[in-house]
Amino acid sequence: MSTTLRINGKSHQVDLPEDVPLLWVLRDEIGLTGTKFGCGVAACGACTVHIDGAAARSCQVALSDVWGEVTTIEGLGTPDAMAAIQQAWVEHQVAQCGYCQSGQIMQAASLLAENPAPSDAEIDEAMQGNLCRCGTYPRIRAAIHAAAQKMQEA
Amino acid sequence: MASFKKIARRSFLIGSAAIVGGVAFGAYYVSRPAPNPLKPGDGEVAFNPFVMISDRKITLIAPRAEMGQGVHTTWAALIAEELDVTLEQVEVLHGPAAKAYYNSALMSEALPSTGYDKSRFMHSLGELLGQAGKLLDLQVTGGSTSMKDGFERMRLAGASARETLKEAAAQRLGVSRGQLSTKDGTVVAPDGAEIAYTELAADAARLEPVDAPLRPRSEWRLLGKSQPRVDMADKATGTAQFGIDVRLPGMKFAALKANPHLGGAMKGFDAAAALQMPGIERVADLGDAVAAVGRNTWLAIQALEAIEFDWGAAPIPASQEDISAAIRAAFEAKPNSTLRDDGDAETLPDGAQEVTADYEVPYLAHATMEPLNATALFDGSRLQIWCGSQGPMLVRDHCAKALGIAPEQVEVNTTLMGGGFGRRGETDFAVYAARLAGQMPGTPVQLTWSREEDMTHDFYRPASVARFRGAVKDGKALLLDGQIAGQSPTAQAMKRWIGLPPSGPDAALTDGAFNQPYAIPNYRIRGYAADLQIPVGFWRSVGASINGFFMECFVDELAHAAGADPLAFRLELARQEWAPAAKVLEAVREMSGWTGTTPEGVGRGVAMTYSFGTPVAQVIEVAEEDGLIRLRKAWIAADLGVGLDPRNLEAQMFGGMAYGLSAAMFGEITFADGAAEQVNFPDYDAIRMHTMPQVEVRILEEQPHIGGAGEPGTPPAAPALANALFDLTGKRARRLPLARDFDLLA
């Protein structure tokens, strides 16, 4: 079945069974590998993307159910033109293995879009679905606060 | 000061002599150092296996697995420090699998010495030296050894390349080398003119390498200071390429299913239905597993679900109770090791109060964030493989064997790793990919394990049980006698890695207990190897994660029985034995404002474990909030000897603690009919944003040796938390995971 997706501002036509999750369409069909596979059951958040600006677990969204424009980590910013949240990640040297960080950043970006100055409790609430086996949480928290401040000053 | 050449010779002598048991061959071998594996292209010069300069760029080789610990950055900084380049102007690559990239520090890790006092416990030296000798030939990232290994060798490699470049400039300018200096990738002439290294590379290639002494610490520009990680921007933008992100033209995607009853045979399977599924092109028999191949990974995973398998039974006791009984049965046989036996541990000292306690910890999965995977392309005679690996030479050899080709016919491309923790020191995931590629010559294929496949086919951190007996008198510890039983991870791993039959004592069985820097006059630790076929292996800090829990919980119980403050009690034992261990305890005492008392509803615990050359103390504070127990705050002090990159070391310390806390709070793998009962994160959770404590880290530099960083943060986490829970509730935590017995916030 042919489906058209809007991803990072571009249209992509894919011919696939409609139950294939968005995660695998992004990674294996379109080649956007920044979005990661971690668990396949929405328990780790590594596959987090934005659909119409809100965080969604792409491993749980069937191709036929994609309800809006998709933004992946590649669409958020690039090494040469990073989004403020990505810059904060670099400034705070957040990543260790880095595998979960695309999902962490997409989740954090979604939080900041809704709540420009989140409290620690609000960060806990928004980020607890995103697992990091390296334990980078203290720096994720610091980077979110820093990005919030920077975005408010901007 | 040893020279770069001498160090290489010395290491090869020990390694090769140990392998063949004779110095003669060693001496012969010495004259032929391992060939430089770098194959410079046109206009490129490889000064040594670690520095390559072309007319355009400078490349540093960091041949250690980057699995999050920051090794590429600090390894490159070691070379850059002496080479006089900035990290911004170089490219850092992992490089090929090669003998030249052997790990020279693994040997001392394999010795059954306490580490802080290297003269002790050398009685099994000969036997272990043989094993270490074989390991020495291997390019392995593990045992928290990278900085111990590279600290001197990499600076010498950088210094030698720098002086050789200066010599080339000296000859060009007609001045002496001593009149020249170097700065940011250039040689500076007496008149201030600068010649870029890239311009001198071709001339320098024609010269004999020049040795140079190392600069004193006071002249360091990069080391000892926090460096921005070379992989950070890529990891913040989704452009870092992990194994699972490898994409080759025409590549197919595959998924794997092996017998969940571990060690059982695959007796047969019916793939008829799977082959009818959309996007599925092939179902391959890999001997003891099956791979489905198709146009994307998810379709392949679905196809595996449609296959009917006839699985053989596992050679493992059917229930968890039977497994525990088999571990306990090891106590009936003679010990595998008695690596510490100070004083008289048999006799209860006069007038002393006896304390006993039994402890138990479960099997654990590694659960790296990136599920296991490898990508392979076989052209009919040569295999190319891409994967994250802590042992690329093992990947090369094992894949070659699987396809019946020579190791030289295998090219290993080591990618970034979404976590390793010891799991990526194994090769099973690469060998399966090689076997699959062998069945489809000319077509590249990526073989990915589902999370369920990954969690149920691990080489688990062994479960273990302990029986501790001790005695206190007048507020002091007089006796500590520990017996620890579990499967030997080293015996299994050595068999898998290099075919060594299991033999001799396994220091990993009691690491974290026998080698603790405590002056207890009667101190004995015995290890017992359990005879079980459950696949086990190395897991971030291995034995120290098990025995650190046993030991530091029991020391806490001794302190309590002695009526002493648990931190002061440890301090007194450590001060008499090894000052750096006392210093880390003093540091967390000061950082946490430890008073020995806590308000109602708050508990604090302390633990200190010496592992991988580094003493680490942690204080953890818990509080009761709305009927649940939350980890509020943690303080960590670690003595690295030389703190090469403070900000990265801080990350390793709180990250190591988080890994230990995840296991302590939630981690448990149990088996039914030989199959793991926990299959994905909902059954095997980890610490998360809302359950992670605030944390403060201090890096000390008191000890004379450089310590490991990747693992030592893990062992004290579980006992510090268990002791805090006792302080809060009055109930001793003697088994893990703690969520079974305490109402922890989850």
Task: Offer a concise description of the structure.
Chain A: Keywords: 2Fe-2S, Iron, Iron-sulfur, Metal-binding, Oxidoreductase. Chain A: One of its GO terms (molecular function) is metal ion binding. Chain A has 154 residues and is an alpha+beta fold.
Summarize the structure in words.
The complex is a heterodimer of chains A (154) and B (746). Chain A is an alpha+beta fold and 154 residues long. Chain A is built from 6 helices and 5 strands, in the order E-E-H-E-E-E-H-H-H-H-H. Chain A has 2 domains: 2-75, Beta-grasp domain (Ubiquitin-like (UB roll), Roll), CATH 3.10.20.30; 77-153, [2Fe-2S]-binding domain (DNA polymerase, domain 1, Orthogonal Bundle). In chain A, strand 1 and strand 2 (10-15) form a beta hairpin. Chain A is globular and about 45 Å long. The termini of chain A are far apart. In chain A, 55% of the residues are buried. The model of chain A has no long low-confidence stretch (mean pLDDT 97). With 746 residues, chain B is an alpha+beta fold. Chain B folds into 3 domains: 34-103 and 138-236, 2-Layer Sandwich (Aldehyde Oxidoreductase, domain 4), CATH 3.30.365.10; 243-313 and 372-448, Aldehyde Oxidoreductase, domain 4 (2-Layer Sandwich); 320-364 and 459-740, Aldehyde Oxidoreductase, domain 4 (2-Layer Sandwich), CATH 3.30.365.10. Chain B has 20 helices and 27 strands. In chain B, strands 10-11-8-18-15-16-17 form a 7-stranded mixed sheet. Chain B has a 5-stranded mixed sheet with strand order 13-21-20-19-14. Chain B has a 4-stranded mixed sheet with strand order 1-2-3-4. In chain B, a hairpin with a 3-residue loop joins strand 2 (51-54) and strand 3. The model of chain B is unreliable at 1-33 and 118-131 (pLDDT under 50).
